Amino acid sequence: MKTYIVVGAGILGASTAYHLAKAGANVTLVDRKDSGRATDAAAGIVCPWLSQRRNQAWYTLAKNGAKYYTSLIKQLEADGERDTGYSQVGAISLHTEDVKLDQMEERAYKRRHKAPEIGEITRLTPAATNHLFPPLDAQYGSVHISGAARVNGRALRQSLVNGARKQGASILQADASLVYEENIVTGIKAGEKMLRSDHVIVTAGAWANELLQPLGIRFLVTHQKAQIVHLHLPDTDTSNWPVVMPPNDQYILTFEGGRVVVGATHENGTGFDDRVTAGGLHEIFDKALSVAPGLTNSTVLETRVGFRPFTPGFLPVIGEMPGYEGLFIANGLGASGLTVGPYLGSELAKLALGKATEIDLRHYEVAGALE
Prior knowledge:
The protein is α/β, with parallel strands linked by helices and 371 residues long. The chain is built from nine helices and 20 strands.
């Protein structure tokens, strides 16, 4: 039996380890639990079909990622994982201009032909929109997408880790470094412990370059800081409210128990500064309360900070590391981590196992992220 070590237990690494373990592989998942992991901070929106991004390679990943959730959640539930953090509550994409709503609706119908998982597409009046999400300003009409979903990143990641463990995977908290002989990666050093393996898979997100530099590899991953605020609406059942996609660059979504999540910031050049800042909070509240003034008197519960990893062209990469044996990598999920991560992890596991992938790997070559 071949052995695999996955370094980095965010959503991508946890999914990779889970799918490897499900296939019967000998797997060790290693993570040092850095502050600012994107998955831990994230509250995900699974609704890629209204995106105006023109990069088809990105859209293919996002579309496939959204579709894959149906299968993944069934697998996890069969493994006894009930708290997956995933719920198909639908989404409402807002605007005040009818022409913009017309364009959204047209885009959704056009894409539903190849993505029937979009579900029902419904144009809603401002009154109907407000009925679905009462805190919203009454001026917004919307397009409702029934197949959209929300994801609690922490809960889903933990379900994948639990599922991997149930399939025999070992989980290790440690600071890992790669062990190699010339151009062959033979394992890792985890603290004082040496672990040998046939393949090492790096899913370390914003910290990947730190891991690869000792090999002489300059991996071009950057990161963007995100601050995300959690609020509470007392005596309010928010469990089935739809995800809200405003006409700005932020979002609003809810979970059970009156919890409302608003954000996120998109901060460049911050390094790994994981502080909650006055400027970040100002930006979040300014945008959120202009869209949903009914949140003005909500309670502030917490603010989470995460670092989204980006590779060149804002397009993820996946594959074997050029010039090295035994080393695989995937990275660059950016703001789409919870949409794309579980699916890309399943594809990465296939690749490492020597199986055919669904995606065309030529669109996501690792060489494009090397200096």
